[in-house]
Request: fold
Amino acid sequence: VAMNMEDAVKIFHEHNFGDASADSFNFDKLKVEILDKDIIYSIEGFKDGKEYQLKINNNGEILEEKIEDDDDKKKLAIDLTKIISGEDAWEKSLEGDARDVKVKEYELKIEDNKTVYEVELDNGKVVKIDAATGEIIERD
Reply:
C-alpha cells in the first residue's frame, strides 16, 4: 500500500530492481494526483542507460509501466534524504489560503538544477517550494 510518496518510491524500487533502498535507483520526477477516491503516483527514474516510468495507485496497484533507452547522460537525481517530505510541502503550499482550498496534485522535480515541489491547488494557484529548504519560491 502506498500511503505516501516515500512508500510509492519503495514500491517503484522493489518492482524494478527487487530492492527498496534509495541507493538502488536514481529518480528525477515524481507526481502525485489526488483524485476523489484514489491517489495516483507517477514516478520517473533512470539507471544504467535505461529510463523507467511507473504509475501506481495508493493500493500499490501498477497502472502503467514503461522502460526505454535513456540517451540523456547528464540527468540529475533527486536525493530523498536531503529534502522535505511531500506532506510538509503540501502544508506549506496551503499557508495563507482559505480553509476550504485543497491540494489537487503536486510534483517533485529538478528545475534549474534545484529540487522543487510544484503544488497545484484546487483554486487554480500554483505554489513552487524549494524542496531542500522548504521556502516558497513562487506563488501564482
Observations:
- The mean pLDDT is 87.
- The radius of gyration is 15 Å.
- Residues 9 and 19 are 11 Å apart (CA to CA).
